[in-house]
Amino acid sequence: MSSVERGESFAEWESFLSESYVPLAVDPDRGAEFHGAIHRSRMAGFDLSTISSSAQRIRRTKRGIARTEGEFLLGSIVVEGIGRLHQDGRVAVVRAGDMVFYDTSRPYHWEIDESWAQVVVQAPLESVRAEAGAELGKMPTAVALGSHTAAGVVATFFRDLARIEQAAPEHANVLADNGLTLLASAVRLAAGELPTGPPAQALVREHVLTYMRRRCTDPRLNVDEIAQACLLSRRSLYRVFGDEGVGAVLRQMRVDAARALLLGDRGRSMASVAVSSGFSSERQFFRAFRWETGMTPGEFRETHGT
């Protein structure tokens, strides 16, 4: 974690930004004391960071480009505040929940007039192009992708991944395996194209997983309801999850929910944990829990006691 507190050197913040991403020129809002923080991590095929600060202007100049080895695509998911991104003759007004892409091989600049926070994904341009498909032309920069669009699934994935990475890095590394492919699917959507091949499959899978995470603790949720809600046939749904199986993924989600309840509320009964985790009975809960963890819920609670 790199941070600059109120009243400290703004030049230090500019250095943090340039070291974390690419060489940048940054100007503060002269009307208020400045503060900012960056948390950055390396994932499979891309870097992921969470950045927050007070108002500023960020510029990627020709001089900075000349000092950079390698070219990158950055995707910002706004968590708080509003920003205006300028690149390639376009201006994207990006609000909370939106995603936008920008290419470090060409000049760009951000205008941020108030306190803000973003999750930023950074990947080599060559890697993104390889995933998106050779037929993709110029990168779709400065195009705001709203949270209500298909790309919103990708934005949610990276926002949640950044949160998980700070709490449980080992879990984030497992989830990140699909990250670059999902990023490529959002790039194609920003270009006005429908993803095909692996990017399309990754997007559909994440769409289904997002729905399942939101509903997994409802005991009534089943394969038929998942397929109907995600506009898929049962056959297509099973194809998305392959040998893993959609039922196995749902069971794992419910067991994960049960683990949190077992440790977070040690006075809660097993029957209550079972129902609150999405299981229809204690018997189903015990069988699923032993299958996933190799121990009973009681043994898990005792083993992980404080």
Entry keywords:
2 domains, 6-stranded antiparallel beta sheet, single chain, alpha+beta, 306 residues, globular, 45% helix, 21% strand, 5-stranded antiparallel beta sheet, Arc Repressor Mutant, subunit A, Jelly Rolls
Describe the structure.
With 306 residues, this protein is α+β, with helices and mostly antiparallel strands. It folds into two domains: 2-214, Jelly Rolls (Sandwich), CATH 2.60.120.10; 216-306, Arc Repressor Mutant, subunit A. It is built from 13 helices and eleven strands. The protein has helices at 10-20, 62-66, 125-132, 151-167, 169-175, 179-190, 197-215, 223-229, 234-241, 246-264, 270-276, 282-293, 297-303; strands at 2-4, 25-28, 36-42, 47-53, 56-60, 72-80, 83-87, 90-94, 99-103, 108-112, 116-124. The strands form two sheets. It has a six-stranded antiparallel beta sheet, sandwiched between helices. Strands 2-5-10-7-8 form a five-stranded antiparallel beta sheet. The chain starts with a strand and ends with a helix. 36% of the residues are buried. The model has no long low-confidence stretch (mean pLDDT 88).
